[in-house]
Every structure is written in C-alpha cells, then in structure tokens.
Design goal:
Elements: H1 2-21, H2 24-33, H3 42-60, H4 65-88, H5 91-119, H6 122-139, H7 142-154, H8 162-182, H9 185-208, H10 215-225
Helix pairs in contact: 1-4, 1-8, 3-4, 3-5, 3-6, 4-5, 5-6, 6-9, 7-9, 8-9
InterPro entries: SWEET (IPR047664), SWEET_rpt (IPR004316)
Protein name: Bidirectional sugar transporter SWEET
Membrane topology: Multi-pass membrane protein
C-alpha cells in the first residue's frame, strides 16, 4: 500500500508541475513585450500563498514529503511569476501587487507560521494548517463555478476550455486517490471538490461541445484558471487577457 501511495503521489506531482508551468507562455509574452498589459497579478499572488501553506503543511506533517516537494516547486515558480509582475507592471499595478504580496504572501503566511508554531503542538498544529490550506483551496474554486454558470447561461463551451477542465478533473482525481491511500482528508476535501467540478465541467462540455469557440474569451478564462487546480489548486481566480 505504501508503494502504491508513493506511485500515485509521484503521478500527482507530475500533473501538478505541468499545471504550475502552464502560464509560461503568458510570462514569455510579458517579458517579450516588457509589459504586463491587462494581466492581473492576483491569481499568482494567491497561488504563491497557497503553495507556501501547502509546503509548510507537507514539511510539518510526517510523511508529507510529496506534498512538500511539489508545492515547494510551485512556490519557486510562483515567486518568479510575481517578481516578473513587479518588474514589468506599470506603476499602479506594481503598487497594487506589492501591497497584496506584503499582506498575503508575507503577512498572512508569517502569521500562520508564528501562531501554529508558538500556540499549537503535535496533531493540533497539523490539523490547523490543514484547515487553512483546505479552506483556501475551496475558496479558489469559485472561478470554475462561475464559468460553469456562464456555460449553462450561454449554452456554449467557448467560456470553458476543454483541457483546463480535463486537468482539473485529472489532477483532482489523482490527489484524492492519494489522499485516501494515506488517510489525509485535508488533501481529499479540496481535491475532491476539484474532481467533482472537473467532472461536471466535462459533462457540460459534452452537452454544449458543438458551439463555435471564441479564442479571445477562452484565452482570457484560461489565464484566470491556470492555478486553481493544484493541491492547492488548481486555481481559482479570474484573469483577463485582452487580445
């Protein structure tokens, strides 16, 4: 059973790494144009916080090596993304990004670490960190819910790119399987939510797949979702890409 859980966890890590790397095209465009244009930094800031908290959870919990490693990778990648925003964003966006990073990625993270280290011990500490991580993950699933509502309203999948729905389904399913194998319900709940949402999105895609896609709209939604389906996400928040 231990070897099976490790194998499943490795598969989950590979899928999550691919999701973390999915915005590379966006940031290559930012670097090439030396401008963040209309991209929003908030999804990356939130994913950086998410990755940081899950890394802390994986380090704190015995046997959480696979959770810590993939989210540690995510922490590095998201830090680079946010740094590029700070370099290439216009003054108002740079100021907004700096404030959000200070509040969420520094202030909130530091408070979570200090409180759990000084006030809590043992399993209570692990459970507290797990609750925070799972809660943040679930909140970040608001974006796919909004997209599903739009698809039903418009009866068109142009608002819901297939591969993003597929990876939300696949990533959620693999991590739920892993969580059940290792009896980690803090991983199971948010990823189970992602798996259910991914399944629902694929069903909607099958129903409305004959609609003609709109590249401009799909690209915009893709930028908004690309972080919300990790263990993590996953996730997620909406970012607009103006063609």
């Amino acid at each position: 059973m231990e070897s099976l859980s490790f194998f499943v966890g490795v598969i989950g890590n590979i899928i999550s790494v691919l999701v973390f790397l999915s915005p590379i095209g966006t940031f290559w465009r930012i670097v090439k144009h030396r401008s963040t244009e209309d991209f929003d930094s908030l999804p990356y800031i939130c994913t950086l916080l998410n990755s940081s908290l899950w890394t802390y959870y994986g380090i704190t919990k015995p046997g959480g090596f696979l959770v810590a490693t993939v989210n540690g990778f995510g922490f590095i990648v998201e830090t680079i993304y946010v740094a590029l925003f700070l370099i290439f964003a216009p003054a108002n966006m740079r100021a907004k990004t700096t404030i959000l990073v200070a509040i969420l990625d520094v202030g909130f993270l530091a408070a979570a670490v200090v409180v759990t280290q000084l006030a809590l011990q043992g399993d209570v500490r692990i459970d507290a960190i797990g609750f925070v991580c799972a809660g943040l993950n679930i909140v970040m699933y608001g974006s796919p819910l909004a997209a599903m509502r739009t698809v039903v309203t418009t009866k068109s999948v142009e608002y819901m790119p297939f591969f993003l729905s597929f990876f939300l389904f696949l990533n959620g399913g693999v991590w739920v399987f892993y969580a059940l194998l290792v009896h980690d319900y803090f991983l199971a709940v948010p990823n189970g939510t992602g798996f259910i949402l991914g399944t629902a999105q694929l069903v909607l895609y099958a129903i409305y797949r004959n609609a003609k896609p709109s590249k401009a709209i799909s690209d915009g939604l893709e930028e908004g979702w690309q972080h919300e389906h990790l263990i993590l996400s996953s996730d997620r928040l909406h970012e607009k890409d103006e063609e």
